[in-house]
Amino acid sequence: MKKNIYKIDNSIEKIYMGRNTMFLDMSEFKRVKAKLKGINYNVYYPYKDSEKVIIYTNNLPDVTLFKINTNHILTHPSVLGSIMSLNIDSNYLGDIIIDNNNYYFYIMSDLKNYIKHNLTSIGNIKITLKEIDLRSLENYERKYIEESVIVSSLRIDNVISKIIKTNRENVLSKIKNDEVILNCEILSKNTYILKENDIFSIRRCGKYKYIGNIKSTKKDNYIIKYLKYI
After folding, report:
1. In terms of domains, do 148 and 224 share one?
2. Model confidence pLDDT, tens digit, residues 112-145
């Protein structure tokens, strides 16, 4: 929590100094935006549905887009884990995009040379990186798959436990550690009842949109439909 507070305060200070922030997730962006009064600023979205953005005043932030070259299938967690294993500050890292077995990620350009020379594998898979034009993905839109699951209630902790296939204790731990974001806000109450079109993300587990209750079962459970972003 202290780290989050520092990041928010540091981001605000940078804007008042005429500089840009690092990458902010939607929760951080909302908190910074609420405190920026009496100052003009712009928001840099790497692509239409980007989950991480940068606030700047005058000059566009210096960002690099890398494509990962590989013939193997990669996953979002494996890419994220390999990048973070290089001991970089997560604020430097933007979105990771997987699109038809093509893999990309955004990074603040301060670190592009370090990343290019040190990120040589994802897990045990050897890879190479190619810097590509930022405009290559500016019209990219996140894709999703539609899924359904049976739940005993529409409480968010119960739904999450079913979706990511873990017990409620693990879900409660994630909520306690600020790892669940609901509609751009850190989730504080595990008793929240999901409403249609609520969007929530779980750190290292993905992003989801609750569509609604399809029907009830004979045992008074619910069959719900949701979108899983990929």
Report:
1. yes
2. 999 999 999 999 999 999 999 999 999 998 888 9
Does residue 131 share a domain with residue 148? no
Q: What total number of domains does the chain contain?
A: 3
pLDDT at 1 over 70: no
Whole-Å CA distances, 58 to 19, 36, 84, 117, 135 = 8, 15, 30, 31, 20
How long, in residues, is the chain? 230
Interatomic CA distance for residues 55 and 205, integer angstroms: 26
Amino acid found at 51: E
In a shared domain, residues 161 and 225: yes
> Which of 150, 163, 161 is closest to 220 using CA atoms?
150
Range of the domain at 165: 144-229
Helix, strand counts (H, E) of the chain? 6, 15
